[in-house]
């Protein structure tokens, strides 16, 4: 039994800025758009670039006088100079500049990974946070930096710059997992080009108790309201004397929240931030937090240690949690005075209260007792349907209380989105109850599988799964009829319920409807064209609809097209000829007193987090990007600008 994954479409954000769009197109080395407004100017035409998750840095696009030079560079560029991969060393280079295009000298640039870089090589921990390992280099007199490192095997690697609180913070993510990342770091030279940091301001103050004692390690974060203070990438914690400093804040008005485990949270709004300045004296006095306490036991009355408790307030707001101690006792400190739900989870036990919102506990409640029942374990045995050989590379996600026989449908998942790892002999044991729970299984090269947990009749506690190989989707990337090696090809499924509900189980014909398709970024797949320009995706199910992109960052062209897989036969798309890239410029008509560098815009699907920042000259410059339909949407900047204004343009290949 195979069932398509379903998910909800997020709401649009509120209406704001006015845009006056002008389109320019150039034959120019493509760079994928930066997110969170990261500014990237491609130093060489052969290298792909995408920047994500920085705070206020922006894309540096070509000015009118530069366009002819860029065209000349593109005409002279080899179809894939960046395909060169030398030895086993990864070389990552780039340059930091300010808003006047001046080099930023002596800035620390960090390249790091969580816990390990590669299992075979020991890398020193980072002094800022020893949970990460990596390297720090300093920019030279030209603002340039250079890393020479071994290929990482960790799933996610980040590059960070956060030296100056009066300049924007940059965080670039590299890796395969997740929708907000650049392509993985690979052997060879990769030029990130010029990364521009824009001017920002800072806020400083202190956090103390009602008795006047300094509160250390209080979380201090920015946002428009107490419930919307995360995701700005510059939260901080208070020092031992209670002081704090938050930098990298765009100019304008913001709100700020302070909270600490043992105290009630406090929010202040209407705080003015000016570029190049620190707004002082934003102090907090936090009241002591009420608690909910009790014990966790098993069915015999013995204490359960290490159980995780988490709750949500009845009126909305901040969650709170705790872990049970060795004697099973727990105490949850509440950040607000509302009644809270509580859910309890522990490995080896059935969860309690997960997903339920019908029972609330008043602040100050004591002597609660939660009795946990031993979980039912299931061993999944995963085999190839044709050969019965074990499949050792797969991931499993358990959906609690989602089985066909579940009485209580409330619940969640254990293990998150299926994460593919190695399982010797094709065997994996996890808590999963027959009939009550469901599972999703993902194995590269095979069809995704989803069904009820159901033990084998002749092997209690075991569920044997035989997977069928899926359809292969292949093609060849060409430029002027010649194969292009080393291109990143991205395949993203369209969420099936959008097709079924809106388009009668077929692709829409009009470009605007195509633009409205919602892509399932959790199921993104990547491949790279080989020396002959060929690429392949395997394990595809019949019937899905996909958007296939020859990475917008190819040299010097890009291509984006819809794909439909019909029947159970492999699909060969043949030659996919890259097209000349386009360039988008927008004149920003800003409210009085608002710096254009505060304006942030989404490109296409806002969930992709492809974001760009306005330049100080009042223009937004994006590109080069692939030809076709694109949507530009303004993003809310808390306390500064509303969001929601959209403009849709159809960029023709090679058209100025």
What is this structure's SSE topology?
Layout: E1 18-24, E2 39-41, H1 64-76, E3 90-97, E4 108-114, E5 125-126, E6 129-138, E7 144-149, E8 156-161, E9 170-175, E10 188-196, E11 201-209, E12 219-223, E13 236-237, E14 243-249, E15 252-260, E16 263-273, E17 278-279, E18 284-286, E19 291-298, E20 308-311, E21 320-323, E22 329-333, E23 343-345, E24 368-372, E25 377-384, E26 393-399, E27 413-414, E28 421-422, E29 427-431, E30 438-442, E31 449-452, E32 462-467, E33 471-479, E34 482-483, E35 488-493, H2 496-502, H3 511-515, E36 525-528, E37 534-540, E38 545-550, E39 557-564, E40 571-577, E41 579-580, E42 582-589, E43 600-603, E44 611-613, E45 619-625, E46 628-634, E47 646-651
Parallel strand pairs: 3-10, 11-17, 11-18, 19-24, 25-32, 33-40
Antiparallel strand pairs: 1-42, 2-10, 3-7, 4-6, 4-8, 5-6, 8-9, 11-14, 12-13, 12-15, 15-16, 19-22, 20-21, 20-23, 25-29, 26-27, 26-28, 26-30, 30-31, 33-34, 33-37, 35-36, 35-38, 38-39, 39-41, 42-45, 43-44, 43-46, 46-47
Q: Give the termini separation.
A: 51 Å
Largest sheet: 5 strands, antiparallel
Low-confidence stretches: 1-87, 496-508, 552-556
Strand order within the widest beta sheet:
5-6-4-8-9
> What's the shape?
globular
Please count the beta strands (DSSP E, at least 2 residues each): 47
Oligomeric status of the shown chains? single chain
Which structural class do you get from the secondary structure elements? Answer: mainly beta
Structure annotation, total helices = 3
Percent helix among the residues?
under 10%
Tell me the β content: 35-45%
Please compute the radius of gyration using only Cα atoms.
Answer: 27 Å
- The mean pLDDT is 77
